[in-house]
Amino acid sequence: MITSIDEHFAAVVRSWESAPPSVPAGGEGLEQLFQAQLASRHLDFAARTLQQRKLGYYTIGSSGHESNAAVAAALRPTDPAMLHYRAGAFYCMRATQLPGHDAVRDMVLSLTASADDPISGGRHKVIGNADLAIIPQTSTIASHLPRAVGAAFAIGRARQAAVELAWPHDSVVVASLGDASVNHSTAVGALNAAGHAVHQGVPMPLLVVCEDNGIGISVRTPAGWTASMLRSRPGFEYVEADGTDPAEALRRTSELVARVRAERRPAILHLRTVRLMGHAGSDAEVAYRSPREILADYDCDPLLATASALVNSGARTPKDVLDEYEAMRGRVAEAVDSLTPTRHLSTAAEVIAPLVVDPDRTVAAIEPASNELRDKAFRGALPESSGPRTLAQAINASLTDLLAALPQALVFGEDVGVKGGVYGVTRGLRRAFGAARAFDTLLDEQSILGTALGSALAGYLPVPEIQYLAYLHNAEDQLRGEAASLRFFSNGQCHNGMLVRIAGLAYQKGFGGHFHNDNSVAVLTDIPGIVVGVPSSAAEAPRMIRTLAAHALNDGRVCVLLEPIALYHLRDIKAGDGRLAADYTAPADWAGDQARLDEGQELGGGPDALVVTFGNGVPMSVRVADSLRAQGGPDVSVFNLRWITPLPVEHLMRVAASFPHVVVVDETRHSGGVGESVVSALVEGGYQGQIQRVASVDSFVPLGPAADTVLLSEDDIARALKEVQQ
User: pTM of this prediction?
Assistant: First the structure.
């Protein structure tokens, strides 16, 4: 029969009264370490009791991993931490480093999904605290590592820039994960990105802690694999520490942190741990581990290790240890009694409050740079004095103005620096602002977005570029699971506002195929809380960029600008009309030239029908409308959505109410495309007229002329509009 670790701890400590433990004596700092470990252990017990009483909702605990309290002890409470979900003792230790924090109370509120939980407000059990610089994570597969690399990059870069950071300039970023997770492609990519930076001489004050218990849920890690893999990471110092030797673990960790802080180079701490009480409360550990294996781990209990060191040094007697153990049990029980039953979030409005995009929220606009700085950035050729510009040129000028106005703004991605982007959109930015602010990255979208996530937390305004929409898909979790969720899991206390530029959509000629003509945006449109805009002309792009940048910088919003590649260099809707090009608005007129997030664009026309569209669909629909009008067909108006997430529903409904017919023109796919949401909004909003929808076929975009067979065409739009007369 397997006894509980609770009973085992007490039995072993009682045995020391007749046979003292034969382990090294404790060192300085172990008494405080022991208290943090005790709190974490009894919180694990409480989690399972709370679940049995139907008062708790989370039982993945930290038992066996309590040696990570030594990591917290070696760091400062201002060092940003992104932690493994078994970091309970780390949290308990760090809470003692800043007066006024009660880790036991915090964790009980989190376990019970209390609306008073100080980090998530009842939305999830996360280990996080804004005051303690612990960024809440829900990752179990290392998806937080790219963010950690980005934060370390930002801290390392800050010494060269006049930027006010969220943390001290000599901070160390710590990220922890389990041994099973180091095999995930996200972890491998993040470690590679950090090593790639070090190889180029880039400061990278990052400590990665692998808490190795030798098992991932039920799958054993091959013996020696984790150490072999971690030792081989270029650019990293590798140090091992044993959680059953607390004094040595604390010494090694403290020395390693000091080197990372002083040398600004990354390190890996391979911390040997065990997993006690299984993966979670629902885990039948005996189904895949023998009783002998389970009991063998009991002897590696870090609480016993710290207690024995204290007893052997004379700092505690066995009775003292048992008294403190039971005193902590009582403290946790008292907290549970006083905090339960708790108040839960009870309405959808409460739950989604951190995600809601409120267009009426006052967000400070981006103030332009001085005339002197602008003149220098544009090399004397101010865009407002240079005649009509294309979409690509307008975006380029807008980014130049953004970098000139905001020293914390960074533009980066594959090929954006020296080359100036595949389509020349970022040309000249590196020359104007230097390689520290407009730079090329390695070819890895996860790392690009991770750099944005971490640098935004640090206080920068990142403007990363994803070279093609199709390239986003292998990194989408960095937006979905990390960037957009941070506001949700921190109850709006932590932000990583950024402006992600993505070149995409279809209709390119001569450089086609799926990877350069991806028309699927469902990956973006179902992420709660982000803003996605699609400019369709040079006139609206600068306004949209300034608006998105303001919401990213001043509201911490994750914003995406999806740029239609096919429109980058066009000037005309019809030959010679110049309607896609536009003069650049001078900063003196910016105040009245902002784009609201709840407003589309009314392009005018006749009363017979309203075409609702966006992106490439705008010039296509305008051409069709002009042609039909000239032929005596229906006289239609065009409404440019501009924002596809969230949709400008109220504006759309006001405009649509004046028309008997609405034709939704959607260049994305028929299934999961933007048009589905538009039709739903019209129906749910009570639109009384006839609704039609035309969209591209559910297909990847093939190469060459075959693309025309699956993409929305102007003939499709014309046929739908002609049916309006029938």
Answer: 0.95
